[in-house]
Design the sequence.
């Protein structure tokens, strides 16, 4: 259980994420997804209301808005689904959403649930979306109900999630699909062209992909259960040691990622990868779809994406000039350095540590290339890497 508002510093999070603030209204979730990442972070599996987090969120939101600062988008949520069965009774997520609406505070809603289509949740969510104060990320591993039942035991079937989205498709709301965790040929069932056509029909604005990661015994069991007839390569998820967690290799993901990116681009839907660093196939200003919000009124930190875009525009970055370029150019209009001190200490100290970790990754050739394959450190220069040669 955690009451921290800031996601922990790590090599995989600190260089990537624009918003690192989370609102976790529950201590766990009852969807029982096979691949659930929360078991690596939570100390409890009991599903209860996380009252300490709700209190922190309320205080933080009020403090930021009272100081007249640009709000840093919250994430609802990162380790538990905000709309699992207990929410119908406890309404903890609704409390957070109402608080955001009351103070006009931006929030990223991420869910496999469908409760948000019912009143009173719908009234609040719709107002947030209408006012560009929220984006709704609907997470789907596959649109195949039978396979989903194996992977996401108690979650609503994808057909139900899509039915809810269809009921909203006539509106021009900032709705995002997360194909997560992404499993080759499973997440793109029945095929990429039909999937893309479906998303276009549902008026989806943005699609995010994030590859599967699990313990070796579980991932092999999962792939065997799915009866996939293709070879999927695995690699260690850890960057510095053997953590006992593996992920689907970039080589096994890249072909479908590129095809999906092209098909989505053809129909006007933006695309991004999550924690993959494949910025050469991103078609959006940020990975999460925050650009669909009122972007002028939110505070976003710099990430590796800004480094990539700088190099594409101005050329390689000399490590000797990295700090100067980062703080005097890349940090302009971004949440970093002295700007952080204006925010409540409950978040500013950890956000500064995230910033330091990002700089550390940029100065480490091994970490940088593993985290972000399209960037490379060579002869003391950070350069854009040609993936076609490195993969």
Sequence:
């Amino acid at each position: 259980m955690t009451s921290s508002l800031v996601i922990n510093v790590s090599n995989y999070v600190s260089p990537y994420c624009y918003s690192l603030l989370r609102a976790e209204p529950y201590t766990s979730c009852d969807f029982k997804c096979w691949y659930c990442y929360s078991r690596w972070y939570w100390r409890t599996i009991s599903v209860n209301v996380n009252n300490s987090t709700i209190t922190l969120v309320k205080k933080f939101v009020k403090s930021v808005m009272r100081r007249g600062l640009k709000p840093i988008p919250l994430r609802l949520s990162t380790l538990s689904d905000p709309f699992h069965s207990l929410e119908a009774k406890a309404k903890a997520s609704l409390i957070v959403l109402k608080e955001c609406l009351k103070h006009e505070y931006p929030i990223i809603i991420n869910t496999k649930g469908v409760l948000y289509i019912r009143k009173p949740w719908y009234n609040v969510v719709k107002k947030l979306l209408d006012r560009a104060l929220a984006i709704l990320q609907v997470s789907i591993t596959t649109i195949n109900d039978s396979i989903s039942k194996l992977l996401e035991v108690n979650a609503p079937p994808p057909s139900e999630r899509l039915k809810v989205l269809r009921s909203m498709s006539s509106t021009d709301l900032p709705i995002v699909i997360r194909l997560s965790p992404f499993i080759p040929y499973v997440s793109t069932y029945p095929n990429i062209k039909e999937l893309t056509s479906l998303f276009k029909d549902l008026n989806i604005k943005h699609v995010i992909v994030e590859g599967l990661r699990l313990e070796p015994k579980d991932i092999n069991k999962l792939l065997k259960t799915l009866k996939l007839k293709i070879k999927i390569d695995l690699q260690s998820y850890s960057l510095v040691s053997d953590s006992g967690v593996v992920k689907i290799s970039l080589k096994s993901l890249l072909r479908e990622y590129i095809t999906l990116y092209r098909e989505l681009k053809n129909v006007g839907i933006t695309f991004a990868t999550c924690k993959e660093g494949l910025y050469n196939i991103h078609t959006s200003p940020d990975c999460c779809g925050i650009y669909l919000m009122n972007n002028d009124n939110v505070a976003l930190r710099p990430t590796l994406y800004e480094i990539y875009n700088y190099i594409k525009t101005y050329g390689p970055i000399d490590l000797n000039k990295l700090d100067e370029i980062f703080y005097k150019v890349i940090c302009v209009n971004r949440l970093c350095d002295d700007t952080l001190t204006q925010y409540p200490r409950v978040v500013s100290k950890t956000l500064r540590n995230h910033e330091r970790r990002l700089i550390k990754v940029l100065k480490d050739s091994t970490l940088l290339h593993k985290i972000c394959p399209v960037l490379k450190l060579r002869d003391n220069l950070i350069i854009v890497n040609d993936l076609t040669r490195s993969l």
In short: The chain has 14 helices and 13 strands. The two ends are 40 Å apart (CA to CA).
